[in-house]
Amino acid sequence: MSTASAATFDATTTTPDTTTTAADEVDALARDTALLAARLTVGFLIFGHGAQHLFGWWGGWGFNGTAAALTHVGYSPGRFFAALLGASEITGGVLLMLGLLTPLGAAATIGVLTNAIVTVHWSHGPFAANGFEFPLLLAVGAATLAFTGPGRLSLDRGWRWSQGGAVPGLVSLVLGIGGALIVLAVKAVG
């Protein structure tokens, strides 16, 4: 290899400048703050539904009322499904708010909301009383958090899935929708 060729080769294989500027840091902080706000909002709303279902907080039915309502729409035994519903909502909501195991928190949220959309809200359509637009929005928000990652202002910081991507996003969708399909199948059989 000639000296000119070697110099050209060296010039084309050097790494680009990866210096972080103050503007880059401001942009990253803005992104992480927006992800925190999204996590807190989606997570708290899901957690709140779970607290209504299990404990009767904020005017909810409580455990016995939720079990009776689930029995009425075909989930038997109602107490089992009430515990599963409430625990999934509370766990998913807390994980999303903390940014801890975010793909699993998103999966729990997606699963609960998919089941609710199919069972309760779909027949009402969108933009109607008890329509499916709000649970769909929360499910998409949870999936988005799995695909984007929870950001640096989270307990997941430093874990592989903290930056999001196709794998954590798809895992959340598969677990969430798969879990909802299993619950719907058990409901249909039972």
Protein model, in words:
The protein is mostly helical. It has one domain. The chain has helices at residues 3-13, 22-55, 62-72, 78-98, 102-121, 133-148, 166-189. The longest helix is centred in the first third of the chain and has 34 residues, at 22-55. It is elongated and about 65 Å long.
Secondary structure blueprint with pairings:
Elements: H1 3-13, H2 22-55, H3 62-72, H4 78-98, H5 102-121, H6 133-148, H7 166-189
Counting DSSP E segments of at least 2 residues, the number of strands comes to: 0
> What is the residue-mean pLDDT, rounded to a whole number?
91
Largest sheet: none
Strand content: under 5%
Secondary structure class reads mainly alpha
**In the residues, how many domains can be counted?**
1
List the secondary-structure elements in sequence, H or E.
HHHHHHH
Using the alpha-carbon principal axes, give the shape.
elongated
Helical segment count: 7
Give the helix proportion (percent range): over 70%
Uncertain stretches of 5 or more adjacent residues: none
Distance between the termini: 75 Å
- CA-based gyration radius: 22 Å
